[in-house]
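User: My collaborator sent over this chain with a note saying "see what the structure looks like." That's all I know about it. Can you take a look?
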Amino acid sequence: MIRLTRRTFMGSTLAVSAAPRWAFPATEVLRSEPVSLQILPEGQNATALLGFNGSSPGPELRLRQGETLAVRFENHTDQPSSIHWHGIRLPNAMDGVPGLTQPLVQPGEAFDYSFTVPDAGTYWYHSHHQSWEQVARGLYGPLIVEEAVPPHVDADITITLDDWRLDDKGAIMGGFGDMHDFSHAGRLGNYAMILPSEKTVRIGDRLRLRLINTATARIFPVRIEGLNAKVVALDGMPLSEPRDLADMEIAPAQRVDIIGDVTAQIDFLFVARDGIYEMGSLSVQGENPSPANTDISALPRARLPDLFENPDKSLTLRMEGGAMGGGHTGDNIWAFNGASGLQEKPFATFRRGETGIIELINDTNFPHGIHLHGHHFHELDSDGTPGDFRDTSLVKRGTSQKIAAVFDNPGKWLMHCHMLGHQASGMKTWIEVT
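Assistant: Without extra context I'll predict from the sequence alone. Here is the result:
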C-alpha cells in the first residue's frame, strides 16, 4: 500500500519539493554524488539518496531545439555508472549504455557527452548501469528541449513523479536485487509524490506542465484537478490535435505534456482501486490580471521521417517469463523470444532508412513498458493506422501492441522493459542499424 494522503484529507502529509533548473550555453559538469531529499513530512528525517549536483532529481537541463548539449559527467559515487539521455535521437556513441555504446565510468572518472538535440520536447536523463538501483536511489533529472518558438504560457513547470521504498525513519530500504520484486511487478515504493520545478501558480495562469515518470516500476494512474487543459504531447512528441485532459496512466519513463488554464489549486491525485490519494499540489497565490483567452493549439509537428506504406520487415517480440508465467528457453527470470539478456546477435538488423513493424506480445502476467533507444515509433491502431509517436509503449498483460519505426539512426540500439528490475533479469535485446 502506498502511503499517500487520502483525497478527503487534503492537508497532505507528503512534502512537495522544488527541483532546480539549469540552463547552460557551453560545457558544464554533471556530478553524481550522495544527496538528501525531504520525502517524509517536514520535521522528520530526510532520505539519503544519490543525485546530480547536490539534488535529486538532478538539475533541469534546458536548451532550444537544434542547440548542442555538452556535459562532462563526473562520477563521485562509489559505483560505476553512465548517463542515458532518454528519448533523444542522438549519435549512438552518446547513448550512455555500457557495453553497447561506451565503457563504464568508474568512481573518480569522467566521460564527455556532446550532441545536438534535434527534437523539441520533454525528455530526461538517468543512470544506465545497475539502473534498477541507481535510478531508484535518485540518479536522474529532466532534460527539456524548447521549441524554436515556444507556445505562450505564463509558466512552464516540470512535474517529476516518483516513488521510494522507505522505512519508518525515512531511510531507503535495501534489497534492490530482490528476486521477488524482479519476478513480479518490480520494486514498488511505499511513498510517492510529485517533485515540481515550481510550487505556486495564479488563478488564470496558462501553464505548460511536463510530467515525467522516473519510477523504476510504478505505473502512475494520474488525475489532475484545478486545470482546464489539453494534452499536447506524449514522450516529447506533439499530438496532431490536442486532447481533452482526462485520467491517464503513465508508465515508467513515459512523459505527458499538458497546456491549460488554472481554475483552482492544482491537485495531483493517484487514482487507485481502493481510493484516491494526493501526491502533491501547486498552490494558488493571487490572480493573473490578463489571463489567456485563446484556444490551445497543437505544438509544431516533429521533424521525423515518414513511414513507408509497406514495411521492409515485420517482426515479433514476445515477452515471456515472470511469476506465474509460462516457461521459456532463456537463462533468467524474463525473456524476449526465448532469450534472456543481450545476445551476441541483434534481435533485428535494418539498413539505414528501412521501416520496420514490431509486434510486442505480452505473454506474461504483468505489464511492461518497452523502450526503444535512439528512435521514436508509431503505436499502430488495431487497423494498422499509425497512431501516437512514442519511445516507450505500455503493453498490458495478455495483450499486444504493434509499433512501426523508420530506423534511420545508425548504431547498436538497446530495446528493453523500463520496469528496470525486469530489464535486469532478462528483458532486454538490441537492434542494429547499418
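A starting point for your reply to your collaborator: The helical segments are 131-134, 179-183, 420-424.
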